[in-house]
């Protein structure tokens, strides 16, 4: 695939919950090797956007294309097979399986469809090593600290060998020292040609790794552009901190 | 036409009784997420208590509702406190099995005490009736039972919405953890809930004893009616059991007119399965399952 | 089956997770299973007729519990209508043997297929329901089937029962006798346990456990959850239907009230839960334990049999909510034999 064709395209995406428009009219076009940071206040529709792309929610309007395939409203496993992996904001480990078996599920059922349990296991160990969970494969997920639980979430997504990776607040709850390695990993993945959509609350962290930042507010795109441009935008500050802060800042 | 009207009247009266049978079941399910498979057995215990009070003291079954409900409240409170609370956080089939064991215990206890024979309580008035119009007869006992059922259900809703205890129960049902943080003692509240449900079941049993015959073998049927009524009405709605009971009563009465043989027995199940498959939130309920992951 | 290797993962289940233990050789479950079957074959000559019938019943419940374990234990969908597949298998056999004059050996696999297809068809809409709602809906399906069977007497004999001709000239397949049914049910039990063991240790087992523990996450990992659930339901129904077919032939005359009795479903669940849901061995132990205890009570306490069974279920569920197999594993790991710590886990 040539570098200019977008790997992930979203057009006019909309999701309505009763009277609430959680996401409305979102357009995206991400080429390979690009990192898009998505920020916005609580309830802006960030997680809904991820759920719409990953197939965990069906859009009420609009379309989602992976490469040239229209996967609007497809079930999550079809989208996973098309090369889209995601993490969940509230981590969802399989509690009855060990850490390594958690990842093995993704290796076995992802696009690679490795049927041999032994080979799947080896692949899983490799992925665990990469995210920094080497040697913890035999633990039950319940015994992992927060940071490791997030790493497991990431490992399960990476084990799918995705083209597009949707990260829903993988940095949340991490200590400062734990954030840097995570950011380095994101950078590394971009270098390998992955397309990333990263949802984050920690604006500084995301600005450092994103090529562009998209600000969601009340489900709609408030603005999109290079990080420093977007973060200086008065509307963004207002959306985050409210009117009074903007005015005081200006004076 | 008059046959259809008669069926409708009968269905509505029967529906009222179904509602009273189901309301406690629905309460326990909604608040504690426990399916009480022994609910029908509690109804029967109420019926046999009313039968005993009538036989020994000559008490009218409708008057017997008060002591019967009180006795079952106490029993229900103890069962929850001493038994169901022990497994309330376990996976669902554990609570299902526990209440199934309780059902076996109660039903077979009743069989040992009273045999499997059908019993009834005779009153001077229950069999009387009056004509609503040409060809449509209303039996007094059933009318009374339906009226009492309606009143009790409305009273329960009022208790739940307006009293401190009721609000504590509702709050615990919505979020046990949060309720505990508010200082609500969940163990006690759950026991109160189960006690209330058992009391309603007991009252329903007394009403059942006044309008027809009953035997220990009816326990399963009563539990099933409660299931169907609760699902039909929807769990999120306080009036769910009432609506579900009425719908079930009507569907059965009409089905009895239209269908041959005992096929009418299948109607309740067919309605149940279709409602679950098509409109899982019930007729009046809020959605209890949805495709939402997290917003 | 994947090539067993040193990297083979620890046996896992829906229960508490255990780390990798020093493993027995990879063939031992199969070797152990074969030894068990051989033991049962040897046992047969040592039994009186009455005992032989009891053990035959135990085999039937081993098969039923193993079948329920697939959908209820591994996949986590508490099916309360499993007896519907049992009855469906039985009545398929009646219709095929009485009306189509087919041999039992044709009717048996046909019953399994009919039950599986039926499960797949009702499973597609109903497996979207979760928890209690699935339980209630499947209960409704089973009860509805019973009413249906009762109301087509031309085919099923209705409420007054149907008889499979099994002796003399009219018999299409001669009745197998106590010895024959002992072997038949032993075979069905062994096949059922082997199917569960294969699924449990293979790729499908991962899918079912993932669905059990988090369906959204499983779907995000590429697991086609609809196919996984429906297939588990269909296989579970096929095994149950086969047991029903054999039971119908063994009983000769069958009645809808008995063949669709919800108590049979509940027995399956009790056996699985008390033995260990989501394990291969658990349902076998549970079925044997409960069936033998039930038979003992029936002989020694005929009056209070059901009463005592009810009390035993209550006590067992409170003290052993995770089942014998998981309790034993945890106890071996933590050296904690106290049943009270079980109670503490789920107590409010």
From TrEMBL, chain A:
Keyword Transport belongs to the record: yes
Instruction: Tell me where in this chain the ABC transporter domain is found.
Output: 8-243
Keyword tags: ATP-binding, Nucleotide-binding, Transport
- Which GO CC terms are listed, alphabetically? plasma membrane
Question: What Gene Ontology molecular-function terms does this entry list?
Answer: ATP binding; ATP hydrolysis activity
InterPro entries the UniProt entry points to:
AAA+_ATPase, ABC_AA/LPS_Transport, ABC_transporter-like_ATP-bd, BCA_ABC_TP_C, P-loop_NTPase
Tell me the superkingdom of the source.
Bacteria
Q: Which SMART domains match?
A: AAA
ATP-binding recorded as keyword:
yes
Q: What is this protein called?
A: ABC transporter ATP-binding protein
Species for this entry? Actinomadura montaniterrae
TrEMBL record, chain B:
The cellular location(s) given in this protein's UniProt record come to: Cell membrane
Pfam families hit by this protein: BPD_transp_2
Q: Which domain of life is it from?
A: Bacteria
* GO cellular component entries: plasma membrane
Q: Name one GO molecular function term.
A: transmembrane transporter activity
Topology in membrane: Multi-pass membrane protein
Q: Name one GO biological process term.
A: amino acid transport
Indicate yes or no for the key word Transmembrane helix.
yes
Q: Which residues cross the membrane?
A: 7-28, 34-51, 63-80, 92-114, 143-160, 189-212, 224-251, 257-278
Q: Which UniProt keywords apply?
A: Amino-acid transport, Cell membrane, Membrane, Transmembrane, Transmembrane helix, Transport
- Give the family from UniProt: Belongs to the binding-protein-dependent transport system permease family. LivHM subfamily.
What protein name does the entry list?
A: Branched-chain amino acid ABC transporter permease
Organism whose genome encodes this protein: Actinomadura montaniterrae
TrEMBL record, chain C:
In terms of superkingdom, the source organism counts as Bacteria
GO CC annotation terms, alphabetical: plasma membrane
Entry keyword annotation includes Cell membrane:
yes
Question: Could you tell me where this protein is found in the cell?
Answer: Cell membrane
One GO MF annotation is:
branched-chain amino acid transmembrane transporter activity
Q: Which UniProt keywords apply?
A: Cell membrane, Membrane, Transmembrane, Transmembrane helix
Query: What transmembrane ranges does the database entry give?
Result: 26-43, 55-74, 105-127, 180-199, 266-292, 307-328
Answer yes or no on keyword Cell membrane: yes
Q: Which Pfam family, any one of them, does this sequence belong to? A: BPD_transp_2
Give the record's membrane topology. Answer: Multi-pass membrane protein
Name used for this protein in its record: Branched-chain amino acid ABC transporter permease
Organism, scientific name:
Actinomadura montaniterrae
């Amino acid at each position: 695939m040539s570098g200019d064709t977008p790997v992930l395209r979203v057009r006019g995406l909309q999701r309505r919950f009763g009277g609430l428009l959680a996401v409305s009219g979102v357009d995206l076009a991400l080429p390979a090797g690009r990192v898009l940071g998505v920020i916005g206040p609580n309830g802006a529709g960030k997680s809904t956007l991820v759920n719409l792309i990953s197939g965990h929610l069906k859009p009420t309007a609009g379309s989602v294309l992976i490469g040239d395939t229209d996967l609007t409203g497809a079930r999550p496993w079809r989208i996973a097979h098309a090369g889209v992996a995601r993490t969940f904001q509230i981590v969802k480990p399989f509690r009855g399986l060990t850490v390594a078996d958690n990842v093995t599920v993704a290796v076995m059922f992802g696009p690679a469809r490795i049927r041999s349990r032994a080979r799947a296991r080896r692949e899983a160990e490799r992925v665990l090593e990469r995210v920094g969970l080497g040697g913890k494969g035999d633990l039950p997920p319940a015994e992992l600290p927060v940071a490791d639980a997030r790493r497991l979430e990431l490992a399960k997504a990476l084990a799918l060998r995705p083209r597009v990776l949707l990260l829903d607040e993988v940095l949340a709850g991490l200590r400062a020292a734990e954030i840097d390695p995570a950011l380095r990993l994101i950078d590394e993945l971009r270098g390998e040609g992955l397309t990333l959509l990263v949802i984050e609350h920690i604006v500084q962290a995301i600005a450092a790794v994103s090529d562009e930042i998209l600000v969601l507010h009340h489900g709609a795109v408030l603005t999109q552009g290079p990080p420093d441009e977007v973060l200086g935008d008065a509307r963004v500050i207002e959306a985050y901190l409210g009117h009074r802060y903007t005015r005081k800042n200006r004076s | 036409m008059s046959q259809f009207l008669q069926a409708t009247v009968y269905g509505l009266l029967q529906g009222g009784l179904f509602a009273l049978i189901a309301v406690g079941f629905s309460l326990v399910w909604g608040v504690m997420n426990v399916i009480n498979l022994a609910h029908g057995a509690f109804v029967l215990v109420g019926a046999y208590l009313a039968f005993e009070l009538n036989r020994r003291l000559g008490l009218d079954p409708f008057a017997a509702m008060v002591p019967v409900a009180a006795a079952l409240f106490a029993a229900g409170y103890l069962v929850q406190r001493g038994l169901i609370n022990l497994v309330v956080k376990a996976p669902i089939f554990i609570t299902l099995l526990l209440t199934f064991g309780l059902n076996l215990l109660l039903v077979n206890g009743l069989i040992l005490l009273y045999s499997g024979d059908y019993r009834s309580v005779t009153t001077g008035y229950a069999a009387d009736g009056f004509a609503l119009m040409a060809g449509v007869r209303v039996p007094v006992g059933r009318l009374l039972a339906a009226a009492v059922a309606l009143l009790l259900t409305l009273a329960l809703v009022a208790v739940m919405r307006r009293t401190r205890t009721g609000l504590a129960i509702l709050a615990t049902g919505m979020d046990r953890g949060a309720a505990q943080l508010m200082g609500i003692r969940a163990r006690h509240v759950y026991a109160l809930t189960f006690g209330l449900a058992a009391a309603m079941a007991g009252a329903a049993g007394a009403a059942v004893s006044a309008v027809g015959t009953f035997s220990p073998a009816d326990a399963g049927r009563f539990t099933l009616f409660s299931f169907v009524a609760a699902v039909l009405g929807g769990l999120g709605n306080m009036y769910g059991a009432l609506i579900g009971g009425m719908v079930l009563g009507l569907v059965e009465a009409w089905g009895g007119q239209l269908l041959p043989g005992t096929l009418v027995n299948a109607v309740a199940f067919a309605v149940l399965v279709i409602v679950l498959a098509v409109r899982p939130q019930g007729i009046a309920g809020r959605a209890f399952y949805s495709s939402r992951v997290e917003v | 089956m994947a090539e067993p290797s040193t990297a083979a993962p620890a046996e896992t289940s829906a229960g508490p997770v255990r780390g990798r233990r020093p493993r027995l050789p990879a063939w031992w479950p199969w070797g152990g299973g074969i030894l068990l079957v051989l033991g049962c074959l040897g046992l047969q000559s040592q039994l009186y007729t009455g005992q032989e019938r009891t053990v035959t019943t135990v085999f039937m419940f081993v098969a039923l519990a193993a079948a329920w374990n697939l959908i209820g234990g591994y996949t986590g969908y508490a099916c309360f209508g499993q007896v519907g597949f049992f009855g469906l298998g039985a009545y398929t056999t009646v219709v095929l043997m009485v009306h189509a004059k087919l041999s039992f050996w044709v009717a048996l696999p046909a019953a399994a297929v009919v039950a599986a297809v039926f499960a797949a068809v009702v499973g597609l809409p109903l497996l979207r329901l979760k928890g209690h709602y699935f339980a209630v809906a499947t209960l409704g399906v089973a009860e509805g089937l019973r009413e249906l069977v009762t109301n087509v007497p031309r085919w099923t004999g209705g409420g007054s029962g149907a008889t499979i001709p099994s002796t003399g000239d009219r018999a299409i397949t001669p009745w197998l006798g106590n010895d024959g049914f002992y072997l038949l049910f032993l075979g069905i039990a062994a096949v059922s346990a082997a199917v569960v063991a294969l699924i449990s240790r293979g790729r499908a087992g991962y899918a079912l456990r993932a669905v059990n523990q988090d369906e959204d996450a499983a779907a995000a990992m590429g697991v086609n959850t609809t196919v996984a659930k429906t297939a588990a339901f269909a296989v579970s129904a096929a095994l149950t239907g086969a047991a029903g077919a054999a039971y119908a032939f063994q009983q000769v005359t069958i009645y809808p009230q008995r063949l669709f009795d919800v108590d049979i479903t509940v027995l399956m669940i009790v056996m699985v839960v008390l033995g260990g849901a989501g394990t291969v061995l658990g349902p076998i132990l549970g079925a044997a334990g409960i069936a033998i205890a039930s038979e003992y009570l029936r002989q020694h306490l005929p009056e209070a049999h059901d009463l005592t069974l009810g009390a035993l279920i209550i006590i067992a569920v409170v003290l052993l909510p995770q089942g014998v197999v998981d309790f034993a594993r945890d106890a071996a790991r933590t050296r904690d034999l106290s049943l009270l710590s079980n109670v503490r886990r789920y107590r409010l």
